[in-house]
């Protein structure tokens, strides 16, 4: 099930304004917007976790509008536009903690700054790929790592890439340590939060932190 979500988030408004993305009031009345993500957990040779390689695919309609606007920019190719767009996305998401919370054994893990990223067209969808490094590299052996990726104000729904009702094989990957158990737990929002989200009008945003209640949780448990 995909929840009705907002068309723009604070983190996206900067680059959309730069592209002069215009939508009619009727188009914004009841938008559906989501991001399909896949995550690869990165480790070093000592078995310490160093970051998350994330792939975000924007929903098809949103992607279509962005590609159309990029192609309208005079004197620039689509690839050039995507290069600039990638930088805008990265800069805007940086102020939002890249929409990502990571914990190891329940303790919040500080994040580093993203320097490796790209925006591209993949399967006719706007795709943003980036490596989110951690400020420290804790050992995974004997630990439990969890993460959530969500829009704090719940303009957009963020869900793992799925096949039918189940996460796809690529939704969460850890290649270096096959002994670890990987799982993706669905969101289980309180009914009051579901009602709160459903009452938001097109020109309203949710309270900061609302998106957390609708976030899936990726989990890595290593013996």
Annotate the secondary structure layout:
Layout: H1 10-18, E1 34-43, E2 49-58, H2 60-71, H3 78-94, E3 100-104, E4 107-108, E5 117-122, E6 125-133, E7 144-149, E8 157-160, E9 162-163, E10 166-167, E11 172-173, E12 181-185, H4 191-198, E13 217-221
Signal peptide: 1-29
Protein name: ABC-type uncharacterized transport system, substrate-binding protein
Pfam family, one: DUF1007
Care to describe what's here?
- It is built from four helices and 13 strands.
- Helix content is 21%, strand content 30%.
- It is globular.
- α1 (10-18) packs antiparallel against α3.
- Strands 1, 2, 5, 6, 8 and 11 form a six-stranded mixed sheet that branches. A five-stranded antiparallel sheet has the order 4-3-7-13-12, with no helix packed on it.
- Residues 1-32 have low confidence and may be disordered.
- By secondary structure, it is of the alpha+beta class.
- InterPro entries: DUF1007 (IPR010412).
- It holds the Pfam family DUF1007.
- It comes from Vreelandella subterranea.
């Amino acid at each position: 099930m995909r929840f009705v979500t907002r068309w723009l988030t604070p983190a996206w408004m900067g680059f959309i304004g730069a592209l002069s993305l215009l939508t009619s009031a009727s188009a914004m009345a009841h938008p559906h917007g989501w991001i399909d993500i896949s995550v690869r957990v990165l480790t070093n040779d000592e078995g310490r976790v160093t970051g998350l390689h994330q792939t975000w695919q924007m929903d098809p309609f949103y992607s279509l509008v962005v590609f159309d606007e990029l192609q309208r920019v005079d004197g620039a190719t689509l690839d050039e536009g995507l290069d600039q767009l990638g930088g805008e996305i990265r800069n805007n998401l940086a102020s939002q903690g890249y929409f990502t919370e990571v914990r190891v054994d329940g303790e919040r893990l500080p994040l580093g700054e993203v320097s490796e990223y790209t925006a591209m067209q993949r399967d006719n969808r706007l795709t943003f790929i980036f490596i989110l490094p951690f400020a420290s590299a804790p050992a995974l052996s004997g630990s439990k790592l969890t993460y959530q990726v969500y829009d704090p104000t719940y303009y957009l729904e963020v869900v793992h890439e799925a096949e039918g009702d189940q996460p796809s094989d690529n939704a969460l990957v850890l290649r270096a340590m096959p002994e670890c158990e990987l799982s993706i737990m669905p969101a289980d929002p309180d009914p009051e939060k579901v009602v709160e989200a459903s009452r938001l009008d097109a020109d309203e945003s949710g309270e900061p932190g609302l998106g957390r209640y609708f976030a899936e949780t990726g989990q890595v448990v290593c013996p």
